[in-house]
Amino acid sequence: MPATHSIDKNHQFARCFECNKVPAMAPFHWLALACKDLANAPLLSLLYGLIFTLIPATIMWLVYQSGTHLVILPAAVAFALIGPAFAAGLYDVAWELEKGHKPTLIHSLKSMFRNPAGEWGFAVLLMVIMIVWMRLAALIHALYPNVPNPTFEQLSAFLALGSIVGGILLVCVFAISAFTPQIMMERRVDIMTAVISSMHAVKENFGAMVVWCGILVFLVMVGFATGTAGFIVIMPLLAYASWHGYIAVIKTKVPRHYE
């Protein structure tokens, strides 16, 4: 008889987790739950918020001190590498509150090493996409009119191509990152499974994802409008809301609720 080989479904690569369909206004509910998490763990939330705030503040300070924008790329690369790790710490805080536990700094720090290969792989993926964008932006900049005060008509080709390329990359980054970090942290799966599942969930919940993207853009603008000080509260809120979005959208064998 020919030998048969059983497949361990727990170790399949590039799977796609099923997702729920949520209402378009669901992100506002996620944000309300995030406010509740912030109230239940204020000190830990603000500590992580302070760390996230120092990063854009440092970038702005370096640009101001150096008088050049060349420092933005290396600073942004550093943020892409360490950002997902600190976000995992905030996801752990929300997860502990969901389970009725008291979140601690030590426990949240340990969560950064639950799936190190996946988290670092995701950070490198974001870094590669960012570098591609910088290269494309340099090429697009060649279309910038070589005149002192260009008119809108002269700028039209530059603005149109830059908007199209930037928009496509923005949509791609949002689709692959909406639920990927949460999936990898909780389920410890490979990066392709997490990315494919995230993209599928975004496609199936297009309306809610448009609203969620709008909330992200608005709050980030508020953060910069406050001289990055607002990020102390905004970043924990966004991380907690992302976790509740993950709970609501990605299906699990046992239904879970946290209100």
TrEMBL record:
Kindly list the residue ranges recorded as spanning the membrane: 46-64, 70-91, 120-144, 156-179, 206-225, 231-250
Against InterPro entries, the record matches this protein to:
DUF2189
The highest taxon in the source lineage is Bacteria
Residue spans making up a coiled coil are: none
Q: Does the keyword Transmembrane apply?
A: yes
Keyword terms: Membrane, Transmembrane, Transmembrane helix
Q: What is this protein called?
A: Cytochrome B6
The taxonomic lineage of its organism, from the top, reads:
Bacteria, Pseudomonadati, Pseudomonadota, Gammaproteobacteria, Alteromonadales
